[in-house]
Design goal:
alpha+beta; globular; 1 helix
Length: 80
């Protein structure tokens, strides 16, 4: 089963909205890495944001032919 390792690179504010910048390494096949961002929805709680973010990573993997479940997306780190 494939896995996606997500590492938070930074957080910032873009046009008044909180954003998380991150990198992803997908261990497939295929195996690849990329960087992206997630705009935090302040109208929902932390758990709902984490699930939405994981779903975004899963959708991006699906576009490349990799099947992931939410339990296959592992998030590490945070800005210091």
């Amino acid at each position: 089963m494939a896995k996606a390792i997500v590492c938070i690179a930074a957080t910032d504010v873009v046009d008044g909205q909180a954003q998380i910048n991150y990198t992803v390494s997908v261990i497939g096949p295929p195996t690849y890495s990329y960087g992206s961002s997630y705009q935090v929805d302040t109208g929902i709680n932390v758990n709902a944001n984490l699930l939405a973010w994981r779903n975004k990573v899963i959708a991006q993997a699906t576009e490349r032919g990799v099947t992931l479940l939410t339990t296959d997306v592992i998030v590490f780190g945070g800005p210091s």
